[in-house]
Hints:
86% of the residues lie in helices and 0% in strands. The chain has one domain. The chain starts with a helix and ends with a helix. The chain has helices at 2-54, 58-68, 73-97, 99-106, 111-130, 132-139, 143-167, 170-196, 206-230, 232-240, 243-259, 266-275, 280-317, 324-350, 357-379, 381-407, 411-415, 419-436. α6 (132-139) packs parallel to α8 (170-196) and α12 packs parallel to α14 (324-350). The chain is globular and about 55 Å long.
Amino acid sequence: MKLVRATFFLTLAKLANALFMFMGRAVAARVLGPAGMGAFASAVTAMAVLSRLFSFGLGPASQYHSASGNMPRTELFTAVLLGATFAAGSSALLVFYTLDFWRYLFFEHNQIAFAYFKTFFPLLTALFAALGLNMFLLGCDHHREYAMVTLSAGLVFLLGCALVQHFDWGRDGILHAQIAVWLSGVSLALYFCLRGLGGRPQLPQVSLLKRVFSYGAKAAMVGTFTYILNRVALFAGNHLVSSEELGFYAVAALIAESLTQLYGMAGSMLMIRISRASSLEDGVRVVSLVSRVTLLLFLGTSLLLAVAAPILVPLVFGESFRKSVWVLIYLLPGLVAQTQQRLLLNYLYGRNLQHWALLVYAVKAIVLAASLPLFASRWGVAGLALAVTTGHLSALVANAWLLRALDGVPIQGLWRLRAPDLTIIRTTATKIWREKK
């Protein structure tokens, strides 16, 4: 019950952040239009992919080791800062020596965004690595501080986009607003970490650094591969559909990803709970319960969103994005599958078995490689959405099979809903409501 209550509280913070980010993206879409929104989404996604790779998995590593308590937190804190510095230097060298490659891969039709990529990518990589401090707070059970950092990111982005629209700063201003999000998050997380560290930061021992970067390296491979596959349609879309159609997809994907905030902190809290599980059977019981409750919530919210989409999309983004409605509906089944698969992935993180997830994403990569060009050539932007949904479903099936093979997790226990699941949701919500009053 403690896990469910903490998850519920932090999910509320994630939902508020998602609302701010969603409103900011809506302003950005109105400023940029369909074609500009597609180019902007491609540029930000490219920077985020490479930042994940060169942050060396410091976020998951700091969360895992701070939660499990297997190393001094004063040394772990310093290890994250050292890792962020190294990330900035290595990414700067990468950009300098491989500019032509990244220009062709991501920015062939977006030279303005490429100019920002060259300037800001090392900064973004360092900030992304340093955001591991926020995961450090979560692993230390500083839930209120984590929630405040999360909320600040969405609020800063919304205010930044509002200023961009008011002063007509265009695409340049939108990119600066995105960077301000990371700056504010890192600054606030650093402040809370120093305040609640419980001692002066200490230089980490070499053995500790090896353990942090060993876990982080595996997490970085899985995390980067996951992020690429989840947004591969944006990359492929640069070559398969027009910029305008890619803008329709970007808006539909934005709405779908905003809905995943209902998934909120379930995965992160599950990872912490699994890392502290007293036995394998305890971990299997917890992941089965959280999976069923999450499935129930997402099936209901996805149906509601499908009904509301014809009104919501034109109202928020404008009539020029009406075509995004059907793209969103095609994405929703994959959205449900994606949230379930992310839960199972966090179980692997909690068991320090995250490297096995590469098998799951190998299956997903094969499915996407076959379906994206085929579906997009037949149905355009709708084909992109159908291919993404097919990829999410294949990853969910592969991940469930992997858990059964590794730890004997029963597949039926993950998804066969039970009457007590409704009782847990109702009881938790009632208790939290009474405490707030």
